[in-house]
Amino acid sequence: MNLGNNYMAAFVIQGCSEIRWLATKMGSKSTTIMGLSGTGDIMLTCFVNLSRNRTVGVRLGSGEKLDHIPSSMNQVAEGVSTAGAVIALVQKYKVKMPV
User: Fold this and answer.
1) Separation between Cα atoms, residue 56 and residue 77, nearest integer Å
2) In whole angstroms, how far apart are CA 88 and each of 55, 60, 61, 94?
3) Exposure string (b/e) for 59-71, b if CB count within 10 Å is 16 or more?
4) Angle at Cα 33 formed by Cα 62 and Cα 95, nearest 5°?
5) Which of 30, 53, 69, 93 has its Cα between 20 and 30 A from that of 82?
6) pLDDT value at residue 36
């Protein structure tokens, strides 16, 4: 996306906040989301090139179609198949998650 480090930091922290909002609405403790299993995993997904989900996101951002990306990968990016469940939970719990 090449939008700069400040934009990337803002984008990631907004995404982390949105995940926390949904998780706490569902009964999770915010401290769990802010720990290694939550934010730590998100940081790896956002910043490490080996992340399968990051690879999908970068390719989507580059204009590739989602229909083509998973079939061209050697491993499964689980975020592709779970995105629909997240959308359903967002609607069920009425949480705004624009990122």
Assistant:
1) 7
2) 24, 21, 23, 10
3) beeeeeeeeebee
4) 70
5) 30
6) 81
The pair of three-digit structure tokens given for residue 75, joined into one six-digit string: 């491993």
24: left (phi over 0), alpha (psi -120 to 50) or beta: alpha
19, with CB counted inside 10 A (0-12, 13-18, 19+), is buried
Q: What is the DSSP string of 60-89?
A: HHTT--TTTTGGG-SS--HHHHHHHHHHHH
Instruction: Tell me if 22 sits within 8 A of 95, measured CB to CB.
Output: yes
* pTM for this prediction: 0.82
Instruction: Tell me the helix, strand and coil percentages in the chain, rounded to 5.
Output: 65, 0, 35
Instruction: State how far the Cα of 7 lies from the Cα of 30, in Å rounded to an integer.
Output: 24
Structural contact between residues 74 and 81, judged by C-beta atoms closer than 8 angstroms:
no
Q: What is the pLDDT of residue 30?
A: 87
